[in-house]
Amino acid sequence: MGTEGAVIARLRAAGCVFAEEEAALLLATAATQAELDALVERRAAGEPLEQVVGWAEFCGLRVFVDPGVFVPRRRSEFLVSVAVGLARSRSELARPVTVDLCCGTGALGLAVASRLAGFGGAGLAGAGAVGGAGLGGYELHASDLDPAAVACARRNIEPAGGTVYQGDLFTVLPGSLRGRIDVLICNAPYVPTSQIAFMPAEAREHEALLALDGGRDGLAILRRVAAGAPAWLAPGGVLLVETSERQAPAMAAEMDGAGLTARIHDDDEYGATVVTGTR
Ligand SMILES: C[S@@+](CC[C@H](N)C(=O)[O-])C[C@H]1O[C@@H](n2cnc3c(N)ncnc32)[C@H](O)[C@@H]1O
């Protein structure tokens, strides 16, 4: 059996459903046989493919994904498209200020800002590819509590001209952003604590608990985000969060209660629910 066949067989034995595709990616990533062996063993041990190869594709961009950092999910592309659509519908907005709270790799903020800047991203090669093109002066800020996520987001966002802060939610944003944020996105942890045990092992064992656990009903962090958002949003600015379908009415009520005008958006294709609150 050749190298490729051996890798496919090892991945298949470990339960990887897309063994052929994954083997091709691992072979393309490793420079030496020793490196390939190490990558294959990490994947066979259950580490997410994106962490093993070091990048994920998101909205046509390749973003760096470091070990332990939350892998951006395909369903979150729906939040990006809602954010871009709402910002574009406001013709008076010249260069929307975008902030990504709980940013993880920073993929969502990067995708929103680069699309608003007219930079589609389709067909890009190489992680961190937005860097070269930059965001054309569009302001992008992001923050996360986890130092590993912040380091990863800095690799993705800073070459494009954005800024990443480390700390709890709004507390680390510069005061100059108060009342100025046009697009505030936050894909925070929203899995109820009691449901964590039922998540796939890939997530439970290789993504930080801080990235998954949303408290008793999953909305502990998002409730704080809704309460804090009005002070940071510009007039007409919008907060966008992802929730489960079941959590959405409660989240919308939190936003309404905070003085925002809430709306629930669902998409069957992505299997995603986004709640928006407009100031
Ligand atoms: C579900 S992950 C999503 C990451 C990213 N938004 C994405 O969609 O790929 C949630 C992120 O929230 C961060 N986080 C959790 N609690 C936080 C807090 N109180 N303040 C800032 N970030 C927090 C975690 O470190 C993690 O990176």
Average pLDDT: 93
Q: Give the helix tally.
A: 11
Number of beta-strand segments: 9
Taking all Cα atoms into account, the compactness measure Rg is 19 Å
Strand content: 15-25%
Level of helix content? 25-40%
End-to-end CA span: 62 Å
SSE succession: HHHHEEHEHHEHEEHHEHEE
Which residues sit in consecutive blocks of at least 5 with pLDDT less than 50? 121-126
**Broad shape:** globular
Find the structural class using helix and strand composition: alpha/beta
As laid out across the biggest beta sheet, the strand order is: 5-4-3-6-7-9-8
- Which hetero ligands occur in this complex? S-adenosylmethionine
Mind describing the biggest β-sheet?
A: 7 strands, mixed
Task: Please give a quick description of this structure.
Helices cover 38% and strands 19% of the residues.
Provide structural commentary.
It is a single chain. By secondary structure, the protein is of the alpha/beta class. It contains eleven helices and nine strands. The protein has helices at 3-13, 19-29, 33-44, 49-53, 77-88, 107-116, 130-133, 147-157, 201-206, 220-232, 248-257, and strands at 55-58, 61-64, 98-101, 140-144, 163-166, 181-186, 233-243, 261-267, 272-278. A hairpin with a 2-residue loop joins strand 1 (55-58) and strand 2 (61-64). Helix 1 packs across helix 2 (19-29) and helix 10 runs parallel beside helix 11. The longest helix has 13 residues, at 220-232. It is globular and about 60 Å long. The chain starts with a helix and ends with a strand.
